[in-house]
Structure formats: C-alpha cells, structure tokens
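Researcher: First entry.
Model:
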Amino acid sequence: MIKVNSEKLFSKAKQLFPGGVNSPVRAFKSVGGTPLFIKKGDGCRIWDADGNEFIDFCCSWGPLILGHNNKQVREAIIETTSNGTSFGTPTVQENELGELILSNHRFVERIRFVSSGTEAAMSALRLARGYTGRNKVIKFEGCYHGHVDALLVEAGSGLATLGTSTSAGVPESFAQETIVLPLNDKTAVLNAIAEYKDEIACIAIEPIPANNGLLIQGREFLQFLREVCTENNILLFFDEVISGFRIGFEGAAGFYDIKPDVIAFGKVIGGGMPVGAYASSAEVMNKVSPMGPVYQAGTLSGNPVAMAAGAAALKECLTDGFYEKMESKTKLFIDKILTHTRSKGYLFNIHQMGSIFWLTFSDQVSVRKSSQIDPESMNYFTVLHKELLERGIYLGPSGFEVGFISAAHTENDLELAANAFIESLDIAFSEVKVN
C-alpha cells in the first residue's frame, strides 16, 4: 500500500498540531505506522490521499449510520447552506429535528442541542447537580463520557472509591467529586450510596459501554441502577452518545425498556456534522437557562446545517425495518468470520449489539468489565489492523474501539470484508505469541 502523500501530510501536521492530530487516537500510536489522511468517502468506502480504497468500518466513529456522502443528507446540507451557515438565532431546522426526536422517543420531553458528545455529557452532569443540589457523581470503569473534567477519572483504592484524575490539568478536587466503581457490581453501588447517599447527584453510565471495548451489560444491572436511583432520589444518567439512534431509534433506553432521568445524545443525530444533545423530562429540563438556574449556552448550538443533516439522517432511520436489516447483515458478517476462527480453534470472539461490533482475542462469551481485557491480546490487533489495511479494510486504529456497519454496506461488501478479516486473522495468529 502506497502512503507517500499521507506520510508527507503527517510530517507537516506534526509541525501544526500536538502529535500531528486533533484527536489522540488518530495518531495510530496503538497500531504503529503513519495515519491515513482521508480525502473522500462514498457509501461504505473511503479513499486516502494516495488513492488507496478501503471498506470503512469506522464510519467517523459511528455517526455515519447511512454511510458516507448519503444523498438525502448531502442534499439537506446543500439546501441549507444556500441560505447561510450560522446565525446564532433560533431557526426552523432546530424545531424540525427537536420534534422529530421527541415525537419518536418515549423517555424524553425536552431537548437542548449542543455541539459535541462531550458538551452534552458535561451539560447533563451540570443539570443533574443543579436539579438535585448535590455534587458527587457515580461513574463506572470502562465507561467514557468525553473529556469532561469530573468524569475524566479512574478508580482509586477501596470498594467505594473517590476518583483520581487521568489527565494532567484536571484538579484532584474535581476528581474527588466522582465515585468510580466497577461495572456490573451491585455491591459496590450499594456501598457507595450508603457512604455518600445525600451527596450523590447522579449515576452516570453508558448503558451499552462502547468506548473501551463493547462491555455489554445485562438488563438486570441497568434495572437495578434504575431502582436504587429512584429509592435514593438520585438521577440516572444514560450516556447514549454512541448507542443512541444506533441500535434503535430509542437507543439503549428503548432496547432495555428502562427510563433514565437524563440522556446525552451525539454521533448519529448530526448526520456526520458536529452535534450533541441532552434531554430529559420537562420538569428537569426547566432547570436549564433561560427557564432555570443551570447555565448552558453555545453560539453554534442548534446550527442549522447540522440540524438539517441530522433530520435527514434520522428520517431514514425511521423507515420500516431499518434497524432489523442493520442487525441482520451485521450478524451475517460476524458469523462468517467466527465460523472460520472457531474451526481453527483461535482464541477469538466478536461481540455485537445491533450494528456495533468489537473484536476480542479471547474465548470469553461475555466481557462486562474492562478488567477482563488482557492488554497483551492487543498485539494480535496490531498485526490484524496492518493486514486489513493492506487488503482494503479500514478499522479504527485501536483494539479497544468498536466497529460500525452502515446502511451503505451491502452483502457483497461484507462478504469481501469478511474474507479479508479471515486472511488477516490467519496471519495474526501465526505471527503473534502471547503468554
């Protein structure tokens, strides 16, 4: 694979940006080599600056549920930009997307648009604190909520543990307001509530954790969180930036039929444009300015171009059988790969939720905690990623990241990709030796 132009562009980028990138995982540090500079995308394919073509399973980290350069989304963007790109005022596009979401989601009554998933999580956390008058929040290991100061923390020592910051620049005093617990551990949750009961504003969780592997939780754990939150006047916050509108229009809340108190959205609702949102009941959202004392603002919030793109994308998601078709073809793709790896006896599995999938180099049927992931197993992924690129397949450059299938992936595309996965896995398992 020729990478001359990408190498030149990356060399220049390193003179402009920290590490040559504007988001860390793009630097290819986990897999080695030079990151690819993507020039074009259409359907399920992307082309880099050297003209190399790839079937894409990154899908811009999830939002491109319809694939690249979708006709409906593209035309909505063109039509909207013909009248301008930003006004800093209310627009009809905000109303249209807001109504589309609220009229098709049982669990929310009011929504506020922002510009990213991180901003949505940050605002939801502030709202929970403002509504309850409490400061502490419970989060879980293996769940990521953007680079919000209070949530960019890891567990300290002890069962009910106050967090310690995982990033320079996050004061320990901020991290001390966060209680970090292992996933799928009811006892840890109960102990934390017993110790900090009257100080906890919310329990925050990715109901389908998909930022550190795909750590699928059982419904019983999520229902348990719902019940303990209700009993203790704590808000339950579902971070659905990835799962929202991806596994179903109502996301994990609808899939599990569990009503959270606050939900953060992102990814899909922008149709590929920068968008996030947080939503709740009218009662809770009336605490947000200008109705209430919880301040949150943004010049580009509700940007008309992003709103129009999001509405076009979500209308497609609402068509009959959309999510069923997505899940079905994802399963066929995965089954073809697993049939081969099982016949070879490889320690390998693929975990799936809807059109999201994650590769693990173990025989564990269920991975519900980040502690179950063997870091050494990522040596397989490094080889796999390189071999897939050589065969025209693009995955996100980290074994801890999930993959996505779009409506644009055809059965033929997935057949070609599955064959490339099989060849690449054979090489990975022949080359890598893990103790």
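Researcher: Second entry.
Model:
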Amino acid sequence: MTRTASGVLAVPPVARRAGAPLYRQIYEGYREAILERRLRPGQRLPSTRALAAELGISRIPVLNAFEQLLAEGYFESRVGAGTFVARSLPDRAAPAAPGAPRASDRPGPRRVARTAVPVPARPAPWLGGWGPFRVSEPAVDHFPFPLWARLVARYARAPNPDLLNYHDPMGHRPFREAVAEYLRAARALRCDAGQIMVVSGSQQALAITARVLLDPGSAVWIEDPGYGGARDALRMAGADLVPVPVDDGGLDVGTGAARCARARAVYVTPSHQYPLGVTMTASRRLQLLDWARSRGAWIIEDDYDSEYRYESQPITALQGLDRDGRVIYIGTLSKVLFPALRIGYLVIPPDLVPRFAAVREATDLFPPTLPQAVLAEFIGAGHFARHVRRMRALYRERRSALVDAIAQEFRGALRVLGAEAGIHLVVTLPRGCRDRAVAARAAHEGVWAMPLSRCYAGGASRQGLVLGYGGAGADVIPAAVRRLRRIVRG
C-alpha cells in the first residue's frame, strides 16, 4: 500500500499488461489488504477520482472495483463523507466490548466428522494409470459412440421442455420402465418401474440406502475380503462393520450369525463376489434370506457386473428369490457402458419407496434427465442388448488371453480365482511375496495390479493381486504378464 497526499491509503500501482483486468486488480488489492488487516474498519479511502489520477488510469475500472467492494460489504459509503472500510468487519486489534466474546489470533481446532473417510498418506501407486491390469476399467473404446452421439444430438437439437425442468426424485419414468423390463428378463428380478430409483452409481446407491436403513452404531455384515467403496459408504453412515469371511460358497452366513446375530443389514455381491469372483451357492442364498427374515434385517445386494459370465448363463439375482421384501438391489451401467456416464439404479421394496424418495430429494433432488431419455431409447431400440453381447465376446477373449498367459509364464506358481465372470480375476502369490510391494513395483513398469490385501477389513489371510482385463487388449496382455513375472520372481 502507498499513502496519498491526502493521507488516505491507496492500492499498489496496477500492472497494465497483467492478465487480470484493471478493476479486478484494484478490487483484489483492497480486499487482500482488508483481510490481512493492513486496512482496518473505519479507515477512510481515497475518492475514485483521486485514486484514478494517482494510478494514471481511467476512472471506470476504479468505479467498478469500488462498486464490487461495496456490494460485498468490504466498503461502506457515508453521504458527504466519502468511502470507508466497513465498520461491521471484525477488528482483531480493537478491545472487545464488555461481555462480548474476545477474538483470538490463535485458530481453533479443525474438526471433521468421526465418520469421515480417512485420507491415505499418499496415493496408491497401483491407481496411478490406466491399462493392464487396472481394476474396474471397461473397454470404453469399444462403445458405439457414433450411435450414442446421434441419439444425444437428437435430444439436444430439439429438447422437450419437460426434460429440462424439475423431475421425479426416482428418475425419468421411461428409463425406469426400460430398466425394470431388462432386469425382469435378464436377472429374474421381481420388480416394476415404481421400485426403480436412478442414481449416479453404486456409491450413491449405498449412501442413500445407508441413510434410510441404518442408525449410527447399526451393525452391518460385510464380505471379507470385499469392496472397499462399500466399507467407506457404510462407515460414513456410522455403521459398525462386522467382517464376515468369504469361502468357495460365498459369504459364510453361519459365521456372520455367530459374530453378530443382531446385525441390521448385510452387504453382499452374491452373483460375482468382489474381489474373489465366487458365486454364492443356492443353499447360502436361502440361508441368508431366512436369517434376514427371522431377524428383521436387510440385504443390500450389489450386482455390479452380472452381465459378463463366460461358462454359463448369468446367475439369478438374490432379489428374485426374496419373498419378504428384504433385499435392496444395486445395479450400475459403469462396467457395461462407460464409467463417466454415472448412471446406476436401485430396486427398492415397495413399502420403502417413499422413504428412499424423500432421502434422495433431500440430497440432490433428482437425477439428470437428458442422459436417461437417451438411455431409454438406447435400450428400447435394442442397442444395449447388442452392445452387451459384443462386449461379452470381447471380454471372454481378453479373459482367455490373461489366463493362458498366466499359465505359460508362471507354470502353476499362481492360483487363478474368479475367472468365470466379470472383467477381473485374482491370482494368489507364492509364499513370501507381499502383494503391496509387488503392486508398487509393478506400477513403476506400467502394470496396474491391485493388492488383494487391500480388500480385507480384518487381517489379510491371503496375499494376491486383483487383475482387471477389461481395459487391456488381448494383444498387450502377454507382455504385461511377462513384466509381472519378472517382478514377482525378482
């Protein structure tokens, strides 16, 4: 700051060649001086005419800057007296009035919620890039974008005014009808469009479900190993997580009941368990439904990539076996279409629909309507079914290339798990190998393998790697496996 001949303070000279407009430089100069307490409440400011003359600029940018500062409450104008720093701003240097709280230069504690997700000390190296073997990466380059672009352009050129206004918190009715029809045919669900809620993906589905079903301290069974994103969403709701082991038959219901019979809910991926890839047996499914019914508990079924099964037809969803309205079903289009679309869905028991709709409306009102309208036509015209068939064949080819390369390079040293479905599989590492160290070294060579131990909520009982093959072409997989072999044996 410089002092004018009249004794009032002026901003530093402006830089005519700076990228910011002159009025913005003046505005920010005064605002920073006030926030840094170099200008104090009640101090008089130069007139706009005097300031413009001192800076050697037009009066217009000065007037614009002063108007903005007056509008935001940093300045105040007194008729016949001039412009001053607003007296309503707090002044740390001034003594506090009797009985008023005294301001302190020492900042108070920066509190966050106890249920906030912890921030890792440093980013996980295996999440630093895309390609082999990044988990959850679909083959986005095989999506029919020219067709999609034509559909989007049709709606954008001649938008229906109804699509541009506020909508049902459950979602666009034609899209929900298309989803319900698809789920009844492909997944044997018992549902209609009135039970479908459109969400931005499985994470939002879990967050809404937790808000409706759980209280702080509610016990929830989770698969161990399992999906870390589900643990985060449930933990943010204040849930008490109860890890339940997964074996070749899926979640061990008997162990879950022994560990916590009073659980309010259970989170499961029965059709293709994440990450091990096992399918929950029929006996376990019925046992889980019986337990939920007798205990008044809820089952949260995440059916995240059920479209891709290579050795048999897709497994019937757990929700289709439910006769008591205990299952909340979660599906997503992220793996089937492309993740940035951010479209998923919930299938809600009829009596819970009003509660779910109220929570949704309180969080973000309703989902974006235009993408749903495009998707409704994409599904109704048969494009969705054709795309799924093409991708199933593509992923089968990539899965086979990965399994064959592992067999050739490791000669039985690694056990392959969960290769029957989905777009990832698991390999167990030889004794003495630590999966996090292997994954970190692999990331430096452009191989994005996730350590299996990261999927455990309790103590990790296995060391292994989760290998996604959805985004890796069959032609690049053998070389990536050779790099991985050198790392594992190095």
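Model: Note on the second entry: Residues 44 and 84 are 4 Å apart (CA to CA).
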